[in-house]
Amino acid sequence: MAFSPEKRTGTISGIIFVAIFAAAATFIAGLAPIHKLGLSPLVIGIVMGIFYANTLHNKLPTAWESGITFSGKKILRFAIVLYGFRITFQQIMEVGVEGFLVSLIMLSTTFVLGTWLGSKIFGMEKDTSMLTAAGAAVCGAAAVLATEPVLKAEEHKTAIAVSMVVLFGTISMFLYPVLYTTIIEHATGFLHMSPREFGIYVGGTIHEVAQVVAVPASVPNAPVEMANSAVIVKMTRVIMIAPMLIVLGLYLSYQAKKEGGEGADVKLVIPWFAVYFIGVAAFNSFHLVPESIVSNINIVDTFLLTMAMTALGMGTRFAKFKGLGLAPVYTALGMFIWLVVGGFVITKLICQVF
C-alpha cells in the first residue's frame, strides 16, 4: 500500500516531487512562445518526466517511486473524473445532429483504424496501438491517460502514444488554417465549407482541445460561429471517451474469456472513473456550482492531469523503445490522413444530409 506506515513518507515525498515538476511545466506552458504553439502543460510535463527518467532517475531515493506511481495511477483517475466539469449536455445539444454524428463516426472509425494499422499492419503490441488510436480518436493526451488504466499498459507505451498526439496534433494546428484560407474558403461545390461546417470539421478531427481552440484563432477574420462549433464538437468527442472506455472494458473481458476457455474466471473490466466522469458532466449540466468555482476546479484538474502525465513520463526509459522503429509514426500517420481527408468527406456529407 502506498500509504502504509513504512511507505508513507516516501510516497508523500514522491508526490511532492511530481507536483514540483508539474508546477514547472505549468509555468513553462504559460510562456508566450510556448502558449502560441498550443502546447499544454500535460505535454510539457511528460517531456520533463522523460528527461528525468533518462538522466537523474538513479540520483533520487527509491522510496519516492511509490509517490510517483500513485501520481500516475490514482491521481490520474481522480483528474479524469473532475474533467467532467468542462462539459455540459447543453453544449452537446447546441451543435446539433451534424456535430454529434461527425464526432461519433470519426471517433469510432479512427480508433478501429489505428488499432488495426498498429497491431496488424505495423506489428506493434495491441495495447500500444490502442493507446495511440485513443489519442487521435478522442482528445489527445487526456484520452491516452484515460485509456491507460483500462489497458493496464506500461508507462513507455503511454509516452509513445502521447508523442504521436503531439507530433500530428501540432501539424494539424498549422495545416488546417492554411487549408481553409487557401482552398476551402474560396472553393465552390463540394470543396467549399461554411464557417460552421469548418468548425465541425476542426472539432471532429483535431487531436487536442487546445489545438482545436488555436485553429479558428489562426484564421483571419474567422466568425465566432466557427470557433463555437469547433469547441462544442470537440467537447462532444471528449465526453464520448466514457462510453468508449466502457465498451473497451467489455471487449477486453470478452477477449480474455474467449482466449481462456469457457471455464475461465474472467473479471469484467469496467472503468468506473469513466462512469463517474459522465456523472460529473451530468451534474455540471444543472449549473448548480458557480462558474467561478468551476473555473477554479478546471485549473486544479489541469494541474492534476499534468502531475499524472509527468509521473508517466518519469517511468519512461528510452531503452524500452528499442524494436519499435517507425511503427508508431506510420500508425499515427495513417490515422492523420484519415482524419484530414476522411473527416472532410464525412463532415461534408453529414452537413449536406442534415
Describe the structure.
There is one protein chain. The chain contains 15 helices and no strands. It has one domain. The protein is mostly helical and 354 residues long. Helix 4 (65-82) runs antiparallel to helix 14 and helix 9 (195-205) packs parallel to helix 11 (224-239). It is globular, with a radius of gyration of 20 Å.
- Tell me the number of helical segments per DSSP (H or I, 4 or more residues long): 15
Percent of sequence in beta strands: under 5%
| Main beta sheet | none
The chain-level structural class is: mainly alpha
Percent helix, as a range, is: over 70%
Which overall shape is indicated by the principal axes computed on the Cα atoms?
globular
Head-to-tail CA distance between termini? 54 Å
Low-confidence stretches: 262-266
Number of domains: 1
Question: What's the arrangement of secondary structure elements?
Answer:
Blueprint: H1 8-30, H2 32-36, H3 41-53, H4 65-82, H5 89-121, H6 126-137, H7 141-151, H8 155-184, H9 195-205, H10 209-218, H11 224-239, H12 241-260, H13 272-284, H14 291-314, H15 327-353
Helix pairs in contact: 1-3, 1-4, 1-14, 3-14, 4-7, 4-13, 4-14, 5-6, 5-9, 5-11, 5-15, 6-7, 6-8, 6-15, 7-8, 7-12, 8-10, 8-15, 9-11, 9-15, 10-11, 12-13
Summed up:
The protein has 354 residues and is mostly helical. It has 15 helices and no strands.
Entry keywords:
single chain, 15 helices, 354 residues, mainly alpha
